[in-house]
Design a protein that fits this description.
With about 300 residues, this protein is of the alpha/beta class. Helices cover about 35% and strands about 20% of the residues.
Amino acid sequence: MTDASERPDLHPASAAPEYAPADPDMPEGIESAPRDTYMHGHHESVLRTHSWRTVENSAAYLIPELHPGLTLLDVGCGPGTITVDLARRLAPGTVIGIDAASAVVEQAAGLAHDEGVANAEFRVGDVYALGFPDGSFDIVHAHQVLQHVANPVAAMREIRRVLKPGGLFAARDVDYGGVVWYPVSEGLSEWMRVYRDVHFWNGGNPDAGRALKAWARLAGFTGIRSSASIWCFASELEREWWGNSWAERATESDFASHAIQSGVADLADLRAMADAWRAWVADPDGWFAMPHGEILARKEAARP
């Protein structure tokens, strides 16, 4: 009988990727990456999954802290579905969403307009150089952002700067080191290997969820509360939505071009991964789970 430790398909994220830092668990380990690039891009298949996100399914840990009248900055807002939801909950407080991609910012602004949410606005912005004065916001929110930046501690320090004294930083990121699925699939195991290599190649860290607390402490935050939550895709509709999205992303999104540019995979490999995702979608036993780390961190209040 083969020992489980000899079965790489049973441990899809256990091997150290080629582009991983020497010690990816150390917060300082990824701060000198040669690239600092968003790996997914903004292909329609990517935005389709991002547009599913709401406060309820992506920021539930923050809900008890949301009170009407508070001001909030949403960093890396994407198509704006979470931002608009936050704005509804904080009205009449001002909510500003920023993203590096101008086309996505326009889409988010259109969503706010269509939904009649007047207290939400959107701008092109840079997490390393936020265009706001010190102490501007009660809350800064970042969902699935810090895994994609090469210097998360520097980003957090800039976020801390724009928070009011006593203000709250809320962050949530997936931890791909804990992602699991059923049934065993060589194709999905290969997808995970390539995904991790591409993520590191772009300067990010696919295991960011577990490091959020450490990064926040290095950035000077205090009173840090940590939690975890999970996305699970198992029903027929969930499998079709998530798996078919990734089947398309595997060959059409920036993930595909980055995989080829980095030499991690070729087009035939990517097509095989897409086929593996479609097979998973069709399997009634298919199940996929993604754990997330979460933090609520305070900027120290001003001393009397």
